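C-alpha cells incoming
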C-alpha cells in the first residue's frame, strides 16, 4: 500500500499492538518506531523484523536490556515514560503523508503519549481509551489545536466514526454502543459472588489482555467507552444507549433524527479498525476475513443489567457530573483490577472499591491541566488502595 502514512506503534507487544503490526506487514506499511513496557525480547524481535528507527521501553531496566540486545544496530533506544514521548516527537519520517501514531498502551500510562502525539502535530490512531476517560477535555482541546481528528481504534468507536459519515452532528439522535455482555451476561448479584479469576478471563468473543478482559466482565470497559464517546463525538451522555449484542457482529450504530439507524458490521477483528484508521478517509482491500451472515445465523439484542453490573451505571454518573470524576473512576478501577488479578480481592470487590472511591471524591473540583488531573488520579489510587487493604 503506497499511499499510506508511516506508523509508530505504542504498546507493540500487546494484543492490539501486535494486530497493528500485522496490518503493517500485510499492507507493506513502514513502521518507524515501537514501544512497550517490559518485554524487551519481543521488542527486539519486532525491531529487527520491521527495521525500525527507534524503540522505547517504559521500564528503564528493560530499556537497558534492549539497548544491549540491539547494540549491533543503529536503532535508538529510549527509556522511561518520558522516553516514549521523546521518541514520538524526535522520530522523523521520510513519507510525505507523515506518521500515524497508533497508541495501544494500557491504562492511564497512555495519556502522556497521546498528548505528545498531538503536540508533535502527528495523526493519532487511539486504542488507549483511558486517554479520553482521564483527560478528555484537554485531549480534545489538543486535538483541535493540532488540526488533526483523533482516529478511534476501539471497535465500537471506529464503527460510530464510520456511521457518522451518513449524516451531520445536528442530525444525531442517539449513539447505540454495542456490548458483548462479557462472560457473565445474565448473572445475578448472588451468582457473581462465586466468580473466579479463571472464569473472568474467558471472554466469549474477543482475545484481549487480562486487564481489559476483566473490565469487559464488570462492564467497566463499556462504561469507559461511554465516556470516550461523549468526548470523541461531542454528544451528551443521555444520547448514548448501550445494547448487549452477544454475537459482536454489529460493532455500534448511530440513530438519526429521522429514526434511521446506520450500523457497521464486520467479523470481530481489531485489524479492521487499525486499517481504517490508516486508510481514512479512503478504504483499502481487507486484511480480515469476509463477514458471512449465513454462518452468523441470527443477531440478538438485550438491555444491559446496570443494577447488577453497577460500574456501567457509575460511568454514566461520573461523565454526567464531569470534571475530574472520570479520572477518579479510572484510577480506582486500575488499582482494583490489579488487586483482583493478584487474587487479593474478589470479583464483586472490584465494583465496591471503585464506587466507594468515587463517592469519597465526589466533591473534587473540575481541573483543566494535565498535572492537576494526574494529581487527582494519584489521590484516587491512594484511597482505592486503602479500601483494598481493609
Amino acid at each position: 500500500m503506497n499511499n499510506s502514512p508511516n506508523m509508530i506503534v505504542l504498546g507493540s507487544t500487546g494484543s492490539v499492538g501486535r494486530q497493528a503490526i500485522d496490518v503493517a506487514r500485510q499492507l507493506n506499511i513502514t513502521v518507524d518506531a515501537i514501544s512497550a513496557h517490559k518485554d524487551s525480547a519481543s521488542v527486539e524481535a519486532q525491531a529487527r523484523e520491521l527495521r525500525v528507527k527507534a524503540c522505547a521501553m517504559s521500564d528503564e531496566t528493560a530499556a537497558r536490556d534492549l539497548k544491549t540486545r540491539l547494540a549491533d544496530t543503529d536503532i535508538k533506544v529510549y527509556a522511561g515514560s518520558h522516553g516514549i514521548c521523546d521518541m514520538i516527537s524526535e522520530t522523523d519520517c521520510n513519507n510525505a503523508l507523515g506518521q500515524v501514531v497508533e497508541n495501544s498502551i494500557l491504562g492511564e500510562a497512555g495519556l502522556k503519549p497521546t498528548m505528545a502525539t498531538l503536540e508533535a502535530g502527528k495523526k493519532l490512531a487511539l486504542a488507549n481509551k483511558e486517554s479520553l476517560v482521564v483527560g478528555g477535555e484537554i485531549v480534545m482541546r489538543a486535538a483541535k489545536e493540532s488540526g488533526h481528528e483523533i482516529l478511534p481504534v476501539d471497535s465500537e468507536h471506529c464503527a460510530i466514526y464510520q456511521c457518522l459519515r451518513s449524516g451531520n452532528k445536528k442530525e444525531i439522535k442517539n449513539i447505540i454502543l454495542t456490548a458483548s455482555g462479557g462472560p457473565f451476561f445474565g448473572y445475578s448479584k448472588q451468582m457473581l459472588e462465586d466468580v473466579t479469576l479463571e472464569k473472568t478471563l474467558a471472554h466469549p468473543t474477543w482475545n484481549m489482555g487480562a486487564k481489559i478482559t476483566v473490565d469487559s466482565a464488570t462492564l467497566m470497559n463499556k462504561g469507559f467507552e461511554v465516556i470516550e464517546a461523549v468526548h470523541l463525538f461531542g454528544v451528551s451522555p443521555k444520547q448514548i444507549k448501550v445494547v448487549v449484542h452477544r454475537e459482536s457482529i454489529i460493532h455500534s450504530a448511530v440513530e438519526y433524527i429521522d429514526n434511521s439507524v446506520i450500523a457497521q458490521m464486520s467479523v470481530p477483528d481489531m485489524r479492521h479498525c487499525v486499517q481504517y484508521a490508516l486508510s481514512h478517509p479512503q478504504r483499502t482491500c481487507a486484511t480480515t476475513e469476509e463477514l458471512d451472515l449465513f454462518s452468523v445465523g441470527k443477531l440478538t439484542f438485550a438491555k444491559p443489567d446496570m443494577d447488577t453490573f453497577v460500574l456501567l451505571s457509575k460511568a454514566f454518573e461520573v461523565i454526567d457530573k464531569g470534571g475530574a470524576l472520570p479520572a477518579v473512576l479510572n484510577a480506582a478501577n486500575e488499582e482494583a483490577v490489579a488487586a483482583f488479578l493478584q487474587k487479593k480481592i474478589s470479583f464483586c470487590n472490584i465494583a465496591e472499591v471503585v464506587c466507594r472511591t468515587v463517592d469519597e471524591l465526589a466533591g473534587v473540583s473540575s481541573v483543566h491541566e494535565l498535572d492537576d488531573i494526574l494529581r487527582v488520579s494519584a489521590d484516587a489510587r491512594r484511597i482505592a488502595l486503602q479500601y483494598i487493604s481493609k
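note: Residues 370-389 form the longest helix (20 residues).
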